[in-house]
Amino acid sequence: MGINAYSQTAYVKGIVLDEKNHPVEGVNVICANNSNQTDKKGFYQIAVPSNQSVIVEFTHVSLKKASLKISLLPNEVYVFNMYMNDQAEQMGEVVINNNKKSVQGILTFEAKDIRFIPGANAGIENVLKTLPGVNSNNELSTQYSVRGGNYDENLVYVNEVEVYRPFLIRSGQQEGLSFVNTDLVQNIEFSAGGFQAKYGDKMSSVLDITYRNPTQFGAILEMSFLGGSLAVDAVSKDKKWSAITGIRYRNNSLLVNSQETQTNYTPTFADIQTNINYQASPKWQWSFLGNISQNKYLYQPLTRQTNFGTADAPMALAVYYEGKEKDKYDTYFGALKSTYQVNDSFTLKFIGSVFHTIEQEYFDIYAQYRLGEVDTNIGSDTYGDIAFSRGIGSQLNHARNDLDALIANLEVKGFKNWKQNQIEWGVKYTRESIRDRVSEWEVIDSAGFSIRPPIVLPKNDEPYQSYAGLLIPYQYVYATNFTNIDRFSAYGQWGRKDNLGTNEIWYNLGIRMQNWEVSGDNLASNFQTIFSPRAQFAIKPDWKKDMLFRFTAGIYSQPPFYRELRDYDGVVQPDTKAQKSLNIVLGNDYSFKMWKRPFKLVTEAYYKKMTDVNPYTVDNVRIRYAADNNAVAYAQGIDVRLNGEFVPGTDSWISFGYLKTEENIDNKGYIARPTDQRLKFGLLFQDYMPKIPSLKLYLNMVYNTGLPGGSPAYADPYLYQNRLNDYRRVDVGFSKVFIDQKVGMSKKKFFKNFKELSLGFEIFNLFDNQNAITNTWVRDVYTKTEYAIPNYMTTRVFNLKLNMRL
Question: Which residues pair with 484 in a beta bridge?
């Protein structure tokens, strides 16, 4: 009985401010039969009925009445700061969509704490990697795989505009900055699969970001040993114009210098991003999203020594380098969006965007190596060095890769709310123009002769027969492609909320279509069309326990992007088909009360059956496709996430995921896919000291079992299957809050204009775990044995971070 009573209540809390942003004391807050009054700091909290539309009224003897129309879920706590003036009465309406998002299987996050979560690449992607079903073994990269998919199978939207990442990046340390600027974010929504037809044609996940629309001037400044950022909010006097602009700079030297390879490393990752809004009329709104990013990566390796083997037989690889790598990625992005409110139930949106990337990847790196046994005699002058060489050799890597890509989009979307029905539709045209030159080769020399590729014709039968074949590099790729892709896509979906007896039900039916043509120099034009039907059903039983059940099924087709059209030899294959996946997801949300605080347990079981699969290999973050739909695959698993207030007033979660994904190439049998990460454990925990609440702790922990990655790139996966070691990483951050206007912390006169001021201390890779991302393979000239030398990621690193908000 007590649980049922509690489930009928929600809470609204916040601060009431006047026109000068000063807290207002003595404001009467009334809703239904409940009332409260703000304290000295303007703070209030009031219980409101849930699952219905109610009005919260704010009254004061010297200010005009203000009210808020709101609808909340049981147990929900909504934070709302009210601004009151003496000019006119105010009426606002807030419709909480958390129930709607839960029905769709979409997770929502609050952006306010993301900036404080520690990580080598702090931001939204850093938080996503703690979720079940989301995997990454590379803390230097913002890329992630979801439920057996790869990095290219994830959709990312900012303000309903699809965004892209550079093409040529092959390692995490080259990436620099994610497109999403955390300082500008208002809402974060994420689906790990089974999403609706309104989202694009990808097979794995969707990340939907909404930037905030500022209502007053403000600024956020962050500085650390890894760089800094500045975000400024601006609003015109008539409130018709508003803009939010962010500038970021990042330098990964602190992290890269913690790796085993000693380098001269000069990276420059910088961008500027702005979102401008204009309210032309009550019915017409315009917005512009722009981004300019420049990533320069200058890398000059010097030496490296990697110790491996066992305690009884320790070995080491020592490498001495000459040469350098010089990469550059310049991207330009602009999107114009217009929203027209035809009437209260019908909305039209017009979106146009252009993405332009100019990339170059140049390197000549000569490496000479020694492989041998390590001197373990503690008293020796050569302790820790190689005492006996089992193998010596050299390697020369060369590349002159250039890419220029221009992607333009035009889109029209409509939304109609008719009684209890929601109808959405959209049409979109995309033009992709890619100019690409790839020229790279690798020469390996061991014991005084050049090693030929593992697979080479004619057959080498020396010394019994003289070899007549050409001397060719160990690896060699050369191609020039001028490729155009024209896409026309459309979607339509219908959703409805209804009642089945005393139970609430939701259902959604939708379908997507895409037609595309690949053309270019020396390419025969090729048209293809795909259809992707999708359906969702959810039911909320009228039980004492607050539960929601979901079922999703659909075809998720992924037409090939340019990267998927280019095969191992760099040649574009225009006949490459769309990969298809039949997705089935069964989910349950259970909201309950523990320790008198709200918690939520989300469980999802899923199965994917994939056809026309395009096999690929992964090296660090570089994906190379066969561009041949010669495989079938499947993925199955279960994701569990428990989140809630483990510590009062903070949101934390524990997640667990199990995944199994295999593929069958050319009917040879099923083997593990490159993303077959069986077990995942993630923890995101926030805490504070009870006696010193201004001292906060943020803990970010991830454990992933080993990926099937470590075998040589040229190896036949059916003959050689190897897994990397498990990935274990803990990042912790401590923050001392000096000023926090939300909780009314006292401020000195010098800092009177600050809303927030905190100083943080972070430890990345707290336990100094050695995590390998790939292996380097070296041959022993005496026994002809090949050794897998792990390429380790970053070690323990310390960082200081200053956060300010005006």
Answer: 433, 519
3-state helix, strand, coil in the chain (%, to 5): 5, 60, 35
Q: What is residue 256's three-state secondary structure?
A: helix
Q: What percent of the chain has pLDDT over 90?
A: 46
CB atoms within 10 A of CB 33: 7
Residue partners of 667: CB distance under 8 A and separation at least 6: none
Say yes or no to pLDDT of 750 above 80: no
Residue of 477, 466, 473, 468 whose CA lies nearest to 452: 473
pTM for the predicted model, two decimal places:
0.84
Query: Whole-angstrom Cα distance, residue 222 to residue 208?
Result: 24
What is the DSSP code string of 317-328? EEEEEEEEEEEE
| Higher pLDDT, residue 372 or 680 | 680
Closest CA to 448 of 394, 491, 398: 394
Q: What is the pLDDT of residue 722?
A: 80
Cis link prior to 690 (omega < 30° from 0)?
no
C-alpha to C-alpha distance for 731 and 364, rounded to whole angstroms:
35
From CA 267, how far away is CA 560, in angstroms rounded?
A: 32
pLDDT at residue 710 above 70? no
**Amino acid occupying residue 803:** N
* Nearby residues of 52 by Cβ (< 8 Å), 6 or more positions away: 71
**3-state DSSP assignment of residue 366:** strand
List, in sequence order, every beta strand (DSSP E) within 310-385.
314-343, 346-374
Q: Is 124 helix (H, G, I), strand (E, B) or coil?
A: helix
